[in-house]
Amino acid sequence: MIPYNRTIWKDHVVDGQGVVIQQGTMQSASNFNNLEEGVFGNDAVGAVLAQQVRQHQRTLSDLEGETGQTTLTNSLEYPFSNSSKTVSLTKARDTLNYRVDVELVSAVGTVGDVEVYDKQLNGFKIRHTGSATSVTVKYYVQGGMYQ
């Protein structure tokens, strides 16, 4: 980008007899176009910076996460499990491109795998594949915004 060349404007001053005390800056196309180019250039830079700010806001929103805890219960004998549970998100996502990380808090029995499936914009389902009668998990949801 070409730096703006500032014009120092001076008033045209004459005394009471019409004698020029100070020559004023010429009101010419060259001077006015210089001003217009400076305004146009700054407007373009402002638009680019505003777009970058919006993109950073979207990126930060996508990093904003949600946590929760739920208990999965199972009343069937291994290898069967009816531990499936639906988890509602407090903030709906814009896309299904979000990540759910799960941390085991406690379990009564063998947990097997903890699976997150059937993701929707406002929630997901979670289950375990083992024979445990009770499994408490903490979940972390991140992403799915503005992608």
Report on this structure:
By secondary structure, the protein is an alpha+beta fold. The chain has two domains: 13-61; 65-143, Immunoglobulin-like. 24% of the residues lie in helices and 35% in strands. It contains one helix and eight strands, in the order ββαββββββ. The chain has one helix at residues 29-63, and strands at 13-14, 20-22, 65-73, 85-88, 98-108, 114-120, 123-128, 134-143. The strands form three sheets. Strands 3-8-5 form a three-stranded antiparallel beta sheet. The longest helix has 35 residues, at 29-63. The model has no long low-confidence stretch (mean pLDDT 92).
Described by strand count, sense and barrel closure, the largest sheet is: 3 strands, antiparallel
Helicity range: 10-25%
Overall radius of gyration: 33 Å
What is the CATH C level class of the largest domain, in words? Mainly Beta
In order across it, which strands form the biggest sheet? 3-8-5
Q: What is the end-to-end distance?
A: 31 Å
Backbone shape: rod-shaped
Number of strands: 8
- How many structural domains can be distinguished in the coordinates? 2
| Multimeric state | single chain
Number of helices: 1
Average pLDDT figure? 92
Question: What do we call the CATH topology of the largest domain?
Answer: Immunoglobulin-like
Strand content: 35-45%
The low-confidence parts are: none
Helices and strands in order, then pairings?
Elements: E1 13-14, E2 20-22, H1 29-63, E3 65-73, E4 85-88, E5 98-108, E6 114-120, E7 123-128, E8 134-143
Antiparallel strand pairs: 1-2, 3-8, 4-7, 5-8, 6-7
